[in-house]
Specification:
alpha/beta, Nucleotidyltransferase, domain 5, 2 domains, 34% helix, globular, disordered C terminus, binds zinc ion
């Protein structure tokens, strides 16, 4: 069994001119795959590095360009995604475990595979190296790759935010924190599908959310509602308190458990009014001038 430690760089939407729109089907388009193959002793066998030519976000988002040092003229000469992923998949081979720093890269890898109709890559064995590092260090907040490299006193030889360079740093971390006696391999594909079912069930519940007046706690009638991905919005008016209410319910994930968090807030009738109110409160009272 081999370990495939991979890292990705993405390009994403940027409004270059009026009328530019993001493609909701693909938010993060892969522009670089970097990966290192390790044997069971965690020794390096080979590496993989490809620049991918984007077809959705062809021009480099300036923030991404600054961060990764990858410019448009470089990606234009890149390999088309399907060709790149085919060679990656062949290079990965049978009996391999995909490993990455956090969940973002594996999520984006699957999204890109789905978008481009490539289904030969298996996601049923995955190791989240960030999670292992967090357990190792007793951390509750997700650390950046840079901070882990610094904490473990790993020598910085190449720049961060290059997929292959980041994959090598992730390997360095992996070697320091991986305890082979603990089974860290998860069936990511299965977990992902189970999560989707849970989210779907919660979405059904969210639509039945009750909206309450935050002032008198009465259940109030909805006069408008809409759902946006994992969020549900509803509006209403408390006739007793004479206030407008906005309700937001959203699905949150904490330690792989999903739940709904609801919030009712009072809508201030107009920003202008609010401003006037606070201005009046802050302004020193003028005493009437005595004749
Ligand atoms: Zn009320």
């Amino acid at each position: 069994m081999n370990y495939i430690v991979f890292d990705l760089e993405f390009n994403m939407f940027f409004k270059f001119k009026e009328g530019d729109l993001a493609n909701p089907e693909l938010k993060n388009e892969i522009i670089q795959i970097g990966a290192v193959k390790l044997n069971e002793q965690l020794e390096t066998i080979s590496s993989f590095d490809l620049i991918i030519k984007p077809v959705i976000y062809r021009r480099m988002n300036p923030y991404v360009r600054r961060k990764t040092n990858i410019n448009t003229s470089r990606v234009v000469q890149g390999t088309p995604f399907v060709k790149a992923i085919e060679s990656f998949s062949t290079w990965v081979g049978e009996d391999s475990v995909l490993c990455s720093w956090g969940h973002d890269d594996i999520l984006a890898l699957r999204d890109n595979c789905l978008f481009f109709g490539f289904d030969d890559l298996s996601f049923n064995k995955f190791i989240n190296i960030q999670q292992i590092y967090m357990k190792y260090g007793g951390l509750s907040k997700q650390p950046s790759l840079e901070s882990a490299v610094e904490c473990l006193a790993i020598e910085i030889k190449t720049p961060f935010h290059d997929a292959l360079s980041d994959a090598f740093y992730t390997v360095d971390i992996f070697r320091k924190v991986y305890d082979r006696s603990v089974d860290a391999i998860i069936n990511w594909d299965k977990v992902q599908k189970e999560n989707e079912i849970k989210i779907e069930a919660l979405k059904q519940l969210i639509n039945k959310a009750i909206i309450r007046c935050p002032q008198c706690d009465r259940v109030i009638e909805k006069n408008g509602e809409f759902t946006k991905t994992k969020k549900y919005f509803a509006f209403g008016c408390c006739t007793k308190c004479d206030i407008q209410i906005r309700h937001i319910s959203r699905i949150i994930q904490k330690n792989s458990e999903y739940s709904i968090v609801s919030n009712n807030t009072i809508i201030v009738k107009s920003e202008g009014l609010e401003q006037t109110l606070s201005e009046n409160l802050n302004r020193p009272q003028l005493k009437p001038e005595l004749p």
